[in-house]
Input
Amino acid sequence: MKNHLLAPLSFVPWLVLGSVACSSGGGTGALPSTDASTVADSAIDLLVVVEPGIDASMVVEPGIDAPVVADGRVQDAVVDTAQDTALPQDVSSDDAQSNFIPMAEGQPASVWWDVATSTLYIADNQNNQVWIWTDSAGLAKYGTTAATPEEVDAGATSVGQIVRQSDGTVVVARFGSPRGSFAAISYISPDGGAGLVPGVDPARHHLGLGLAPGDKLFGSYFSGTPGGAMAGALTTVDLQIGETDYATGFGKIVGVLFANGKIYVSDQSSSSIYVLPVDGDVPDAGPDGGPDAGGYTVLATLPVPDQLCAGPNGSLFTGQFQAAPNSTDPISVRQIKPDGTVTLFRSDPDVGKPSGCAYDAVHRRLFVADGSTLLNGIHIFPVP
Output
């Protein structure tokens, strides 16, 4: 027997219908004073957003199958028609088509899945913030990287890839100002202290960052004017000493990854993903400074490749932060097989502005940072 009444939809401010969430206040669609964002995956027909402490069964009709946003986490809600209660399912459920971690604050840029602690680390484009997420505890602020007031005032807090070393040190590449200042490689120590890698040229944009065995860090930088020629390099990074050029002759490097015993470099200038050895035996860049002339191996060519992560069976995933010029191809997350074959994994409207990605091999799911206005958060996609 029912012991509660369901309020009319028009009087439930935290019930959002449709493929795009909104609020009565308009604007970005943020819910008033709630720990959850209003953003739903566009593949979802019904999203129920519940204020913390509210029983989801009070706002979900029996028989409705819809995701519920509660206490900052998204879960599938399957309503038991006999008991009239909403039973949340684990986001790692094989039956889930997709899930979403909404971010009411900040803008996610990159993600790192830490296997040892089953924790997702999220680098935020706003205010130098780093977040963490787990299945059990949901989303929480982890810390803030070192910054100057001038950098914050200039809006130069955009970041690139994030990695976590085995001792717990979290390292983040900072893009800096589009005009070429405030770039850095920042880190948060296990004790919570924040620092910057010394000697990093603040005029060189930093986005790509990868971690190899033994906590060896590979970084990258590029410089140039928007719309003009870019000159970039792959580097090695020592948190206490600085960075050293490892391979030159690239353009706009946006992604770096160690996987399958190799280093992969995502270069937007050439729309290519290159493969380099990790032992230092790197081909010469060539007289014109171009990687093709120097013999760098091209794994794949694809529209506007972005950050990289390893996937199943030796494959890679890459996002696509923006549309390709003069192209009708949809913005997509793509999977690259070991032979260089490229397939679409998820495309617009499932994703809006995908950049960083991270793969959880245990639960076969892919986390994708999406900083678009309507989809500001982290997608969790099942991987077949």
Q: What stands out?
A: The longest helix spans residues 149-153. Confidence is low (pLDDT under 50) at residues 1-97. The chain has two helices and 29 strands.
